[in-house]
Each structure stands twice: as C-alpha cells, then as structure tokens.
Specification:
By secondary structure, this protein is of the alpha/beta class. The protein is built from nine helices and nine strands. The chain has a six-stranded mixed sheet, with helices on both faces. A three-stranded mixed sheet has the order 7-8-9. About 2% of the residues have low confidence. The structure holds guanosine-5'-diphosphate and magnesium ion (MG).
Length: 301
C-alpha cells in the first residue's frame, strides 16, 4: 500500500552559524537563504519549500535568537530579529534543532526545553559532521546529548556536503500531517525575486567587508524590471556614515565592483536569467536603530 502524502511546516532552530540556512538550501535544492561565515547573516524569517514524491516540507529558516543585552543596548534591528525568530513557531508541526557536531551548550538545552514544552516533536540535526576530525567521538556525543531528552529523531548530517539528508527528510515526513501539498511543486520560497536579489547583495557585504561593517549596512532594491530576457536590477547599499561608504566602495571602486559581480552571478543562477545589476552606496544615519527606517527597508512582519 502506498503511504499518504504528507505536508507541513518545519521550524529550523539553532544557535547562530550552526548551518540552518545551509541546511534549508540543501533541502530545497537551491540557494534561497544567504549564508556566510558570520553570525547574524539571516535577518528575515524565510520559507524554503522542499517538495519530494512522498511529501512537502515548508522550512521556516530563522535568524537565531539574540541575547538582549538589556533593552538600552539591543538595537531595533536585534529586537526585530528576535521577534522574527519567536514568530517562527506559529503553525509549525515539527522543529529541527540544529547543532554543530561536538558542541552543545545551555542555549541548546534551553531551545530543546522550549520546543518540546510547546508540544512539538524535536528532531536533532547534528550538522557539520564533515568537520569532525575524530569520527569515533560522534557516538558518545550523540549518546550524551540524547540522554534524558526525547528527540523524535537524531540525525548526523553535513548540510554542506549534503550527507544524511535523505534519512532526515524521511524522519521529518513521519511527523507531518497527511494532507496535500501547501505550495506548488515548482515553488521554492515565499519571498519575491526582488527580496532575494537584495539578499544576494547583502550576502556579499557580509562576506567581503571587515568585522563590524556588515551590521551597519542594508540593501534596498530600487529597481527590478524584466526587459525581454534580461533582468534589470538597481540596488542601493545603505550605510550609517560617510566613512563606511568609502569602505564599501573601496579604492577606485574596486570593492563595490566585486560585490556587484558576485551578487550578479548568484542572481543569474537563482533566477536562471541574464542580470544587469547597478549598485549605489548611500548614507542614512542610524538606520539600524530607527524603527521607521527599518520598515522602509523591508524589516516588517
Ligand atoms: P546559520 O547562521 O545557522 O544560518 O548558518 P549558515 O548556514 O549561514 O552557515 C554558517 C557557516 O557554516 C557557513 O560558512 C557555512 O558554509 C558553514 N556550514 C554550514 N553547514 C556546514 C557543514 O555541514 N559543514 C561545514 N564544513 N560547514 C558548514
Ligand atoms: Mg542563517
């Protein structure tokens, strides 16, 4: 007898940088969520739709929760990211708790308690197993973190190398309700191409700028037009000070060109189209702590 089709929402939860967005992309089979070696790359809640013959996972990729260091120092941006992470649990059927192999800390215990306390099946995803030098350490680690916890499944995977994902999908599907697909099978995200274009530019800012600067930048897509077989995209990179503008542009405009070139390549791959991308850098003081500016830049629920 054939199994019934299953579909539902799957929250992807975990500390910054464990690989939540990489996992979401690997399951969806396309790069829709930006990834960088920096924590706090993901700022928006984003749905990744992964459709299989047996069912459909609607993955909710989240910005990790931030510890508010007291109301006065948490910026409006951090408050917004926390709201997006908390809101991610509404209407969810299963939670994936993602950790990095060999690591577990209080925040993970706290997340497990919160998720299982909310009545959700929690599947533990032990990611980045490709980075483990001593593979024999994996079994004792799995035993240790499972001790006293009732996981709906424990899956060592490498999101980067796409190892272990089939078994993970199988486990997750078992915990989704029997129902028809929630999205069309060719849909991969709830976000518009316009939004994704901005994210591709932001990813390059995260990757190519020094320590502090990425957090002082955001991207606004001013123009997104289909021109025959070409996409014409205009992106404004907003910074907070003149000095930052000079850094983003770089000597003779070199850095901005490199950011634009890499972002354009990513867009062409995702949109399967030729892209003509123009970029500008503009200054708006204090945008990241200005609620009105945040809304104007698309940080709204
Ligand atoms: P997030 O903050 O949890 O969304 O983490 P990201 O998906 O942005 O990944 C953070 C960093 O870890 C990036 O540099 C990824 O390339 C890297 N990464 C994610 N998954 C894996 C993995 O399975 N193996 C390895 N070696 N690196 C990974
Ligand atoms: Mg992420």
């Amino acid at each position: 007898m054939q199994n019934a089709y299953r579909a539902g929402h799957v929250a992807v939860i975990g500390r910054p940088n464990v690989g939540k967005s990489t996992l979401t992309n690997a399951l969806v089979g396309a790069k829709i969520s930006i990834v960088s070696p920096r924590p706090q790359t993901t700022r928006h809640r984003l749905l990744g739709i992964a459709t299989f013959p047996e069912g459909q996972l609607v993955l909710v990729d989240t910005p990790g929760l931030h510890r508010d260091q007291g109301k006065s120092t948490a910026t409006a941006m951090h408050r917004w990211m926390n709201r997006a992470a908390r809101g991610a649990l509404e209407g969810v059927d299963v939670a994936l708790l993602v950790v990095r192999a060999g690591q577990w800390d209080e925040a993970d215990s706290f997340a497990y308690e919160a998720l299982s306390g909310a009545g959700l099946p929690v599947v533990l995803v032990v990611n980045q197993v490709d980075r483990l030098k001593d593979k024999t350490a994996l079994l004792p680690y799995l035993a240790q973190v499972s001790e006293g916890r009732d996981f709906a499944g424990v899956h060592p995977v490498s999101a980067l190398k796409r190892n272990g994902l089939e078994a993970l999908v199988k486990t997750v599907l078992q915990h989704l309700p029997e129902q028809d697909a929630l999205y069309g099978e060719d849909e991969i995200t709830d976000k518009s191409q316009r939004f994704l274009a901005g994210e591709m530019v932001r990813e390059q800012l995260m990757r190519q700028l020094g320590e502090e600067l990425p957090y002082a930048t955001t991207v606004e897509i001013e123009r997104f037009e289909v021109d025959g077989r070409l996409l014409r995209i205009g992106a404004v990179i907003w910074v907070e000070r003149d000095g930052q503008k000079a850094i983003v542009i770089g000597k003779g405009g070199e850095r901005l060109r490199e950011i634009g070139a890499k972002a354009r390549q990513q867009m062409e791959r995702l949109f399967d189209s030729k892209v003509f991308l123009e970029t500008w850098v503009r200054v708006r003081e204090g945008w990241s702590d200005d609620e009105a500016a945040l809304r104007a830049f698309g940080y709204h629920d």
